[in-house]
Each structure stands twice: as structure tokens, then as C-alpha cells.
Design a protein that fits this description.
Shape: elongated
Number of domains: 1
Strand order of the largest sheet: 2-1-6-5-4-3
Number of strands: 6
CATH class: Alpha Beta
Helix content: 25-40%
Oligomer: single chain
Structural class: alpha+beta
Distance between the termini: 54 Å
CATH architecture: Roll
């Protein structure tokens, strides 16, 4: 896959997301961005893979609608030969239940033509899927009271 030596779109995207600016974050991605994630999107709808900027926008909007983001802190950023590896510590608070989700997310970004063209996100899928089942149970219990 082609790549640029200039990985600043990755750094800007991380900075904009940490600041809570979805639109400026999306400016760093190509129109046909491929964003892959290792979680079952049927089990965890807010963590679905996406193809294209509008699809990615919807997924990121769903994350923001579902959670308050209390922490988004890159722990390491390493520029490899053809991609950038990022390890991020994230702490989320579920808007409806108040339950907390703490994650270490591993990301790989490929840049071409000054934009991010591919992203792979890896996290503890079983942990996130269990969290989703738990908050669904809590939401259902709250509705039945």
C-alpha cells in the first residue's frame, strides 16, 4: 500500500478527536477511508467497521451519542515504514447508565496524498462485547421499573 513520509494527518486526527472536534477529525481522512475494527458490529453497534467518510462519520457520531469521553490519551505513536502505530488509553462513561469503560486501543494508520486512507483498530473485543451486554441489561432493568 502506498504511503507518505508525512504522517501529520494522523497526529492532527488524534489531536482533534482528543479535543472533541469531530469535523476537524474527519478532515484528516480520505473520502474512501477504510476503517476496520475487530469487534462484532451486531453485538456492539458503535464499534462497526466502515467504508467511506460518511459511514465513518455516522459511527463516530454514534460513539459520541453513546458516551462521554473522559480520557483520550495517546500513550505511544510510532512511525513504521508504511504505517503509524498508536496506542491510546480511553475512558468512556455510558451516557444512559453512567457505567465506565476503560480501554487501551491499538491503532494503525496508513496515509497517502496527505490523508488517512486506512485505519485498523484493535481492542479487547470480548471485554467490549461483555460491557455492551451489561449496559443493555441495565437499560432494560431501568425501563421495567
Amino acid at each position: 500500500m502506498p504511503f507518505d513520509d508525512d504522517r501529520t494527518p494522523v497526529l492532527r486526527a488524534l489531536e482533534h478527536w482528543a479535543a472533541g472536534d469531530l469535523e476537524r477529525t474527519l478532515e484528516e481522512f480520505s473520502e474512501d477511508i477504510l476503517f476496520l475494527i475487530n469487534v462484532d458490529s451486531h453485538a456492539v453497534p458503535f464499534l462497526a467497521s466502515s467504508l467511506g467518510k460518511e459511514d465513518l462519520r455516522q459511527r463516530l457520531q454514534l460513539i459520541k451519542a453513546t458516551f462521554h469521553e473522559d480520557l483520550f490519551e495517546p500513550e505511544s505513536i510510532i512511525h513504521e515504514a508504511d504505517y503509524t502505530r498508536v496506542l491510546v488509553n480511553v475512558e468512556l462513561r455510558h451516557r444512559m447508565t453512567g457505567e465506565r469503560l476503560s480501554l487501551r486501543i491499538r491503532l494503525r494508520y496508513w496515509v497517502d496524498g496527505g490523508l488517512i486512507v486506512r485505519t485498523e483498530e484493535h481492542l479487547d473485543a470480548q471485554y467490549v462485547e461483555a460491557f455492551q451486554r451489561f449496559v443493555l441489561h441495565m437499560e432494560n432493568a431501568a425501563r421495567s421499573v
